[in-house]
Amino acid sequence: MTQVQQIRRGCCTAVHMNALVRPEQLLAGVDLDGYSPIDKPCFGNPTSLIEYMLVCGYDDWLEEEPIEVWVYKHGRLEVHDGNHRITAAYEVGLELIPVNIYYRHGSEKVHALVS
Question: Which SUPFAM superfamilies does its entry note (predicted)?
Answer without folding.
Answer: ParB/Sulfiredoxin
